[in-house]
Amino acid sequence: MKFFKLLLCSTSVVAHLVVYAQTNDNEIPELAPYIVTANKYPEDPLKLPAFVTVLTQEDIKNSGVRTVNEALMSLGGVLGRKSLYGGNEFTMDLGGFGEAAASNMVYVIDGVAFKHGDASEIRISNISLDEVERIEIQRGGSSVLYGEGAVGGVINIVTHASGLTGKIQNTANAEAGYGSYGFKEIKTSGQFANEGLRLFLSGAKGQSDGFRANSGNHSDNASVAIQWVGDRTRVGTSFSNNNEFAQTPGSLTMAQYLSNRNQADSDNLSNRTLIDSNSKHYGVFSEIDLNGLIWRNDVKRRDRDYYYVDIYDSSSINATIGTTNYTYSSTLSQSIATGWGKNQYIVGLEKNHWSQYRDYSRAFGYFDNTSDSKSAYFKNDFDLSSTLTRISMGYRVEDMNRYSIGYLYDEYYETHKKMEAWEWGITQTLTPHQSVWTRLSRNYRLPNIDEFSANSATLNPQSSLDKEIGWHFLTNSTQTDLRFYQSNIQNEIAYDATVDGNYGGNVNLDPTKRQGVEASIRHKFSQQFEVSGVANYKKSNFVGGTYSENAIPLSPNTTYSLRGNWKFASAQSVSVIVTYTDAQQIGSDYSNLYSMPSYTVTDLFYQYKTPKWEFQFAVKNAFNKDYYSYATNAYIDYTTRYTALYPDMKRSFFAVYKYYLN
To answer: In this structure, how many other beta carbons lie within 10 angstroms of the beta carbon of residue 201?
Structure first.
């Protein structure tokens, strides 16, 4: 009932804003004019059969967020949980997949999907916000364009390495930040252009003591990107190096949490658990216009080496891990005018090779892991000019092979599958400012190496049939999107702490379903005042089997993020961001016996900005909410169940001074 009241109220507000917007079209700067993610080429948002949220560089800079993670959660309304691997990282969850969230969405960075063959997380907090041109969040399956894993959605991060900004101003800046819990940070960045040559540089160094015992971290990052832009050609290369050291405090029992939420697990503390990593990314791309036929090629290499100390059966375990990932992508896209309308298409070939060694020393020995995939896809959009109708269709076939070899105990695990994805969509333009759309798609993912190698049962690939219907509204001052959706999933891959005598393992769940409504709105009342928000209401439950009608763990019914920004003087502005997450079942609680409470977090931000310098002050969790965003079933000696939870930070402050060299 509370949700429907909120929805009714929101609908009334939207209706009012629509009327207001239609009488003020020429007074407000235009909102985000194009979207790339849904088609892999710039496109009019009104024509897309998809729900996409766009965060511009201006949005990010005026909000007080410090990382890409924070931008996704605070501005994009994406559900995030504090990383179990320490540092300033969060695990994003598109679609409510809980502990398997990282395997049910895809990060795309500068046009190339970023994927791992194991269950390790993709850490994006090291991407400098000064590098980011825009972030696009597509909710809903997109395996046709982005392949395996794009079940819950896609997060597309476009940086200066491959973005195409109109006019580049030669500039550089340096900033220093200081905050709660020993937070210190220094950042520099610069961009330079001479005719067709463009150069982008950035660097950062930061540290924090962490708010819990044994949660300190420090990092340093550097990146460089070069582009040459000609009349019909673009070529570019990029390199980044990221070092990160993070202590890991572990989980707490409820009694420990109530006693002292800032303490660490005693085993983690005594063994000084940690992760120490280095990542290097190399990239080259070319884009050629062959008389309207756009040929794009990308080659990416990503190396990550890390050492960690963790707890296994109350004892310390350490490992050295090295990963290398090559991605090759080639696409052709073209727009063709016909007597009936315009036809646009994209065809692509992709190859991904991921290899990893793991050295657990005497504990488990040495492992070689490999994941290979080859895929071909196409997507076609035909705009019928007589009826202002777009018909979209797409198809992908992907051949995947993953295997793991363990030498100490002579182990061998393998899975090899060929999977297919398809989609159909229709968009109908109603007026120059609004359209309605519908889409039907099939999406998939394969169990990763950690899921199928540490398992007593054979895991089947996961597939989903997704149905969506939506509405777009866009003027110079208002952008509103609405989506009703239903996702029916077969063989959902998830962790179950009770299998194998409470040892825990991954299973294929009985059929599950997620259905609901998502809405986003952004409105500029004037040059000085803007509001925006993203809200989601869904039901996630089993539709058969042992747990029929039960809720899926870690999939809250209601989430929303609301933001207001007021520029109350020529150089000064304030922002308020409110995020809400509903109550939810804890991880692996398929019987629905244990839940975690809802929480609302409010962030405040002040900015004083001149052409030469800028001062920022932010209060995170301003009302000092005591909460935790992740909890799961766990067992002592495989017999006694308890709730293992991970507290989130209460109120914190930070201040930043930034100086510009123009």
So the answer is: 19
State how far the Cα of 157 lies from the Cα of 395, in Å rounded to an integer: 24
For residue 503, give the amino acid letter: Y
Q: pTM for this structure? A: 0.93
Q: Are 341 and 386 in contact (CB under 8 A)?
A: yes
39 phi and psi angles, rounded to 5 deg: -130, -10
Q: Residue type for 401, please?
A: N
Query: Residue 653's beta-bridge partner residues?
Result: 619
Separation CA 328–CA 285 (nearest Å): 10
Nearest partner of 180 among 652, 661, 660, judged by Cα: 652
pLDDT at residue 496 greater than cutoff 80: yes
Per DSSP bridges, beta strands 105-109 and 153-159 are parallel
Strand, helix or coil for residue 516: strand
Q: Which backbone phi and psi does 327 adopt, to 5 degrees?
A: -130, 130
Provide the domain limits for residue 149: 2-661
- The CATH number of residue 250's host domain is 2.40.170.20
If you average pLDDT over residues 326-344, what whole number do you get?
A: 96
Count up the domains in the chain and report the number.
1
Name the band, by pLDDT with cuts 50, 70 and 90, for residue 638.
confident
pLDDT at 373: 98
- Please tell me the distance from the alpha carbon of residue 617 to that of residue 52, in angstroms, as a whole number: 30
Distances (CA, A) of 254 to 210, 265, 627, 646: 20, 12, 12, 10
In 209-314, the DSSP E strands lie at 217-229, 233-247, 274-290, 293-312
Q: How many C-beta neighbours within 10 Å does residue 546 have?
A: 10
The whole-number average pLDDT for the span 647-651 is 98
Q: How many residues does the chain have?
A: 662
For residue 313, is pLDDT > 90? no
- Output the CA torsion 551→555→558→559 (10° steps): 180
Sign of the C-alpha dihedral, residues 110, 79, 42, 141?
Answer: positive
Rounded to an integer, the average pLDDT of 43-60 is 92
Distance CA 472, CA 154 (A): 19
Residue 336 tokens read as 């063709």
